[in-house]
Input
Amino acid sequence: MQTAKDKQSIQMSSNVHQTLDRMISKLAGVVPEFELRYKAELAYEINQLKRQRNAIILAHNYMEPALYHSVSDFTGDSLELARISARTEAEIIIFCGVRFMAETAKILNPSRTVLLPAQKAGCSLAASITGDDVRELKKQFPGVPVVSYVNTYADVKAETDICCTSSNAAKVVQYLADQGHERILFLPDEYLARNVAADTGIPIIFPSLPSSGNEVDPKNLERAIIGRHGRCEVHEKFTVEDIENVRRQFPDTVILAHPECNPEVVRASDFSGSTKAMIEYVSANDAPRYLLLTECSMGDNITAENPGKEMLRLCNVRCPHMNLITLQDTLASLKNTQYEITLPSDIIRRARASLDRMLEIS
Output
């Protein structure tokens, strides 16, 4: 005779199989089936538990495919997930990304519990600048508005006038220029700053770097973007040589570069945009194959959504920080309310102002 516990176990097994079937349908040929069989149990348990705890899972486009396609309630780039963070009513937000993203969710929704599934999921770019650095720059350039990339920690956002993402950076800078600001501090990504300068036609200087001969004289600050040396450890690895090698072997490949790439790489590519813009570009076009010059897991996620299109990826370029976020740790974080993001109220208040301005402009 079956007990209630036996019936529950049978039902759970059936539901896990349904979860597995959905994952195989989406990810066959992208993730090995033996891996999906193991991860389906984790995904099922996470989906059950998040409903019980009134939790939502936000997953950045760089998350590994099994997680991205099985447990996320919302996916997107930094701007899209920031918008969702600002309006959710869930009691718990689990941010499958890196720390600065989870901090942004906390800043925009301070009354919610925000969890990051990994104890350390940092960012080389965010670590390249601190709030103290920004204060020193503001002393050096008094009255100059500060635009900080969203890929920064909360103490930097608190010293910032307007945040931006890769998708709206040029728009934010142009907005300030249209408001009559001749000089704009743009922090901390060197390559994104150079690409924004090219898009807006505003000269760029790097007072802290030796001149390459292409920038205006640092003494001539009447009209300029003032940049700083900071780079993403993933995007700085891509080169024009990579593009040339692919074009020789696969001439029909469309090449997409993230704006955190070197401007020479961006110019040699067919398209440059945020991760969301890349996804939309691939979905809307009919090229047989694409090369994504960005974190390589996104190629798998796009392949799952566009099975008829081939992704050529330089898959030695995996973000070591994004790679720390796993289904196992997401389940543990949700079970134990583990690795909660906490920030001082003053930092939240001041950082919120810079994010709100960004969302208003966007």
DSSP finds 15 helices and 13 strands in the chain. The radius of gyration is 22 Å. Residues 126-231 form a domain with the Rossmann fold fold (CATH 3.40.50.10800).
